[in-house]
Write a structure and sequence with these properties.
Helix content: over 70%
Number of strands: 0
Number of domains: 1
Order of helices and strands: HHH
Structural class: mainly alpha
Distance between the termini: 69 Å
Radius of gyration: 17 Å
Number of helices: 3
Strand content: under 5%
Length: 73
């Protein structure tokens, strides 16, 4: 039986992407966090997705710190 390396990589990408939020929140054990870091270092798409997720979280946190306008009604 031949293993398709592209299919293996895609499966690994799916697994890593499921872990990204927990990774950024610091909720993964050190071994799993290292797996996410290592994969993102070599996978352009996952690295981009991790960077975009990090930027989105940062922007949402900054937005949450902004005062909310009072309701005029």
């Amino acid at each position: 039986m031949t293993v398709n390396p592209v299919a293996v990589h895609r499966a690994h990408c799916r697994h890593v992407r499921e872990l990204m939020s927990e990774y950024l929140d610091g909720e993964l054990d050190s071994k799993t966090a290292a797996t996410v870091r290592r994969h993102a270092r070599f996978c352009t798409n996952c690295r981009r997705m991790l960077r975009n997720l990090r930027l989105t979280i940062s922007a949402l946190r900054a937005l949450a710190e902004q005062p909310t306008p009072t309701d005029p009604g």
